[in-house]
Design a protein that fits this description.
By secondary structure, the chain is of the alpha/beta class. It contains six helices and five strands; from the N terminus they run H-E-H-E-H-H-H-E-E-E-H. The longest helix is centred in the last third of the chain and has 22 residues. This is Damage-inducible protein CinA.
Length: about 170
């Protein structure tokens, strides 16, 4: 995936959010801020992007986003429940109306039979109600390729969630 595709997808997210008066926050683990970086690479993005949380460690997920440590202990950091808790925390700890969260195993190590390298959970959360989850198993790709595909998926999820939000006048 090249920068032009990132730019195009991020531009669509910003336009959709701008049209509905929405601000965005990101909560990123395995992507380390790449989604926020893709969005803020677009000139004028400051009217849409409120903030990005890079919560690589479990402690950061708990401290910055309010993810319960017991949830991480029970389900593991790479899980649907933790992705949702990260997304919710990003909305609650910001001025954003919607957020996307990413937690996964980019490799090359760290995978298990149950949670292999390439497993990534995405959650998008809106103050207005819609909540989305996507689980992707990118497989045996390079760390860089897994992270790039994760950014692509996160931008698509933000665009999808923004499309589901109704504008109230």
């Amino acid at each position: 995936m090249n920068d032009e595709i990132f730019f195009e997808r991020a531009s669509k997210v910003l336009a959709a959010c701008r049209a509905k008066g929405l601000m965005v926050a990101t909560a990123e683990s395995c992507t380390g801020g790449l989604v926020a970086g893709a969005l803020t690479a677009i000139p004028g993005s400051s009217d849409v992007v409120d903030r990005g949380f890079v919560t690589y460690s479990n402690e950061a997920k708990a401290q910055m986003l309010g993810v319960p440590p017991a949830l991480i202990e029970r389900d593991g950091a790479v899980s649907e429940s933790v992705a949702f808790a990260m997304a919710e925390g990003a909305v609650l700890h910001s001025r954003a109306g919607l957020a996307v969260a990413i937690t996964g195993i980019a490799g090359p190590g760290g995978g298990t039979a149950a949670k292999p390298v390439g497993l990534v959970h995405f959650a998008a959360w809106s103050r207005q109600g819609p909540r989305l989850h996507v689980e992707r198993r990118f497989g045996d790709l390079s760390r860089s390729e897994i992270r790039k595909r994760a950014v692509e998926q996160a931008l698509d999820l933000l665009l999808r969630l923004a499309g589901e939000i109704k504008v109230t006048v």
